[in-house]
Amino acid sequence: MNRQQLGLLFVSTLIVIISATSRNINGQGLASRSENKNVMNAEETKLTKKDFLYVVNNTITTLPCILTNMSITITTNTTNDKNNANKTLSVPVNATVGGHCSSVISEMKLIWKENNTDKENTIKFTFINDHENFSLFSIGLNIYLDKNNSSNSTGDWFNATSDTDLRLFVAPVTNGIYKCERKEEVKVGNAKIDIKNVSLIAFYKNGDISAPKEEQCSDKKNKTPTFPYVLRDKNGACTLARMSISLKIPYRKKNMQNDTAIIKVPTTLNVSGACDSSKGTSTMLLKWNPEVSKTESTFANNITNTIIFYLQRDNIESHVSVISANIFIDETHFKDAQNAGEFIQMLATFKDLFSTPAKNGIHSCSEKIFTSIGGITVTMRNVLLVAFDAQQDFASKQVIDCERTYFERDFTYIVWRNDTGIPCTLARMSIDATVLYKKGDSQINRTLNVPSTAVVSGNCGNKSSEMTLSWSESEKNSTMNTITFHIGRNETNFFVYQVAATVYYDKNDKKTAIQGESYSMQDLFSASGINGLYNCTGLSHEIKVDDIHLNITNVTFIAFNTKEYLNPKEVTECPANSGGHKPIPSVVGYPYVVINKENVPCIAANMSISIKVPYATKGTSTTRQTTLIVPESSSGKKMNVNGTCENEKSTMNLIWTENSEVNSQENKVTINFVNDKSNYFIQSMNLSIYLDDHTFPEANAIGSYINVTTGKLDIFSTPLNNVYKCSDKTSVNAQNVVITIDKVSLIAFNKAKNITSKSVNCANTESTDSNVGAIVGGIIGGIILVGIIGYLGVMYKRNRGYGV
């Protein structure tokens, strides 16, 4: 090997070493960024929340429930003695979005101002879920007609609502999206609304909207109404019903064999009956002609099948009280029936079938099956029923689901209020008490069950209540065993904070008893303090009351109830694990903590968060600004922290009331974390801010919410199992709202009961630090390149001198 070859080999080796060194100075960070870039490119092809102009978030789950793009033009026709003028408005893409979400009825409001006016225009879309599809049910308008741009010289409001059950933009409610560029025209009073270029998702429950099932433009010719059964009186519709009804009817054949016939009630039939809202009664008669054979067709027009629903309402609730049927025994369905050509009658009575609140309620039920006297089985699926108040605003209807309906008779132990007679504490549970005591030299365990017939006593307060269960085990011994539940309430939840018990050693012993009290608790049977219900069938609650061990299972529990009608309730389900209640690990120094199902703090944060909120003022075109400070739990304000803990995505909700003396509405900040398998970081933030007149004086939209979200973020990125610490301020924008975070100590996706002491401090110039390797490598590489060029030039000249 000559000198030239050795020189080239040396230079090549040096280049390789330097290149490898420059790549590895920050190798892990650069690799991570490369991987994130690849993931982002893959995700760009998927549908995300940012692809929609108008989004309504569920205030409880913080997930989007309505997402839509649409082009909306409104034409109003205003008439006076001299002129007949039209005014056209276009809903801007930056209109303020409001609304609410429920399982059956959801609403989206778009609010905006026209130029040269401080009046807010509103268009309201009401959507309905019929168990299979969602659709646009109605549109409401509240438009200001100013004197400069309309024939109404004084300036007036135009307020009108479209016909109900428009049945537009129909798509599957499970992972469906409606898309159509075609223009739809809707009449709203004297106004006309043109809607085109529609992309719509409604009643969405999952966080992932990346790949919905697409439904193209609706076919008007085959449009089936949401409510096919409509009972009308002189004032219009009074009872609305949607349901799929089938009857399984047993009958005897001519050969004495038993068989069954299936009768399905058609959706197109004759609806009649009578409504009397003043008396609280409604009777809806469904009538249709049976399917008959050719031999029966001569008299078929005079034969009808009927089903009658009897509905009633009192001051508390409305419900179906009776269902009757009269079914013709035809030869098509009742093959070889002994009594062909006759009728079979059915009658079934109910205490509270399809129950709703007395005022403006709607009942939803996926399936209801019952068997009448005589053995007829009736199956009703996909039920939507408005028994009364059919013409009242649908967006404000109280939705009751049959799977979440509760009545006094469903509970075993009840404490009533002395003043109103309303039940304040209601419980259904199984309780076993094990007594541990010594008799002579022997250790004895005795287990007794609290009977369902135990005497219930107690009291009902605003912040604390009691429920005592008393029972005697022997007719000879009148001495009573007792268990007392002490119930408390804070700003957000109710809970049992202590259990006391007195249990006698022996059922025939009148003198010797064990008494005890549990330690204080704050999570036993805990649910929302306002309209909440705790439900737990899969967890055994083990409570130590000194030498008495209680085992409580199959719990349904309500406390601090103030309503005669118990529905609807905000249900809290117990965790799936069966390990009982373990103490929450110490998180001293972290005011914001989310606990997972294993009782581990998966997210813990100590940070200062301020929110600058601009808002428009009444009667002017000026904009003011209010700065909110997210409080800590010790600040004295009503504060609640909750969230979700998953492997790849987690959330933390900070919920507080800004001024509890003025209003009880809540603000919410939701922080969304992502785990990319090596680091965690904040990916986005959602805000829901309530405009009260104390914090936002003279606000134009007092009583409404500002709902905004940031774009995709990548802040506070930290290796897993490390605490991120940074005192510097970080500001992000959520549309026109500015969120500033500083003094941060944060860990997410934590799996240890004790939070690690390992931490990573923020860098002031992260982008510079992250490129140090590339810069150094580039400089060194440049120097080497110059050397190589010089070296090659020298060798070239030397070779020419040798005549090569």
Automatic annotation (TrEMBL):
Matches recorded under InterPro entries: Lamp2-like_luminal (IPR048528), Lysosome-assoc_membr_glycop (IPR002000)
Transmembrane segments: 772-794
Membrane disposition: Single-pass type I membrane protein
One Pfam assignment: Lamp2-like_luminal
GO biological process: establishment of protein localization to organelle
Native source organism of the sequence: Bombus terrestris (Buff-tailed bumblebee)
Cellular compartment(s): Cell projection, Dendrite; Cell projection, Growth cone membrane; Cytoplasmic vesicle, Secretory vesicle, Synaptic vesicle membrane; Early endosome membrane
Protein's recorded name: Lysosome-associated membrane glycoprotein 5
Record carries keyword Glycoprotein: yes
Signal peptide start and end residues: 1-20
Domain Lysosome-associated membrane glycoprotein 2-like luminal, first and last residues per copy: 54-203, 228-320, 416-562, 592-750
Function: Plays a role in short-term synaptic plasticity in a subset of GABAergic neurons in the brain.
Keyword Glycoprotein: yes
